[in-house]
Design a protein that fits this description.
Chain lengths: 120, 186
């Protein structure tokens, strides 16, 4: 590798000069707008990034999780109504109330845990 | 109050519709560039911050909620956050000050500090140095760095070969460096 007086490899020196010249020449332009090539290249690379599977999946996941959350709330409401109805029926049909309360409390707690997990 | 068409666009944006995104980015790039240039008059830094903000938006797409506001407001929030990060980054490093020509002496070994690039005198010195170059050299430097054209595109514009453009670019860079270094003695 070529070495210059400043002990920097020639390639590094050329790269540094290139970078500084690029930044300086841009300063000389009065326009307050970005270059057309920069805009074009940024749009293309951003759209390529958008097409990446991970980014696409993120969008789908948030949509799915929204549905899951809604279903979770609906199912929790249904489970609560079901447990309440079963309790009322068991009282009306004169089944041992204490036994019924324990069974339905366990069932209700299980469903709450499951659907609570879906919501959160 | 957003109309139905706008709301549909926001939903399409949230889903990552490429056509809506293309139109959105195309509209937002000059606006963001203007915001960053107003804060720091440094086109290279402004381009870097625009690029960072757009990519932050693409990668953080799932955090956008159309019910909370427009994509423009959301992107502006990301840009403001990048301004805050840049301010913090600058506060953590030593400030570059002193004679500009001292920094110009080392342009092939040291990166020019942003604070130096943002001074009005630096832009004036570069303009003066550029005006002393041959017109072809000025043209090739502008085409390559201001317009951001590739060598083959410049060759097409100048109706010459790529090899000739490479040579011209090389000579133009050396001439500009020489002129900038001479500024010290003048």
């Amino acid at each position: 590798m070529n070495l210059k007086n400043d002990n920097l490899p020639f390639d590094d020196s050329a790269a540094q000069l290139e970078k500084n010249i690029s930044r300086l020449v841009k300063l000389a332009d009065d326009s307050n707008k970005p270059g057309r090539a920069f805009t074009r290249s940024l749009i293309n690379s951003a759209l390529d990034e958008l097409k990446r599977p991970e980014i696409k999946e993120k969008g789908i996941t948030s949509e799915v999780s929204c549905w899951r959350r809604a279903m979770g709330w609906a199912a929790m409401f249904a489970a609560a109504c079901g447990a309440g109805l079963a309790f009322v029926l068991s009282v009306l049909l004169e089944i041992n109330a204490f036994f019924t309360v324990i069974v339905f409390f366990l069932m209700f707690a299980n469903w709450m845990t499951y659907f609570g997990g879906l919501i959160l | 109050m957003p109309d139905e068409l706008e709301k549909r666009n926001w939903a399409g944006f949230a889903k990552g519709d490429p056509d809506i995104w293309r139109e959105f980015i195309n509209r937002q790039i000059p606006l963001l560039f203007g915001i960053f240039m107003k804060r720091w008059p440094n086109p290279s830094l402004a381009e870097e911050l625009v690029q960072r903000s757009i990519f932050d938006a693409v990668r953080g797409l799932d955090s956008y909620n159309p019910l909370k506001g427009s994509p423009e407001e959301w992107l502006l929030g990301i840009a403001r956050n990048n301004i805050r990060l840049e301010i913090r980054k600058r506060a953590a490093r030593p400030t570059a000050n002193g004679d500009i020509s001292r920094y110009l002496q080392t342009i092939d070994t040291e990166p020019l500090p942003d604070e130096i690039l943002e001074r009005r005198e630096t832009a004036e010195m570069v303009r003066l140095a550029m005006s002393r170059l041959k017109s072809k050299e000025q043209a090739v430097l502008r085409a390559r760095y201001t317009e951001g054209l590739m060598v083959d595109e410049i060759a097409g514009q100048m109706q010459t070969t790529e090899k000739a453009v490479y040579n011209l670019l090389y000579r133009a860079k050396i001439s500009l460096r020489r002129e900038l270094k001479l500024m010290k003695s003048s």
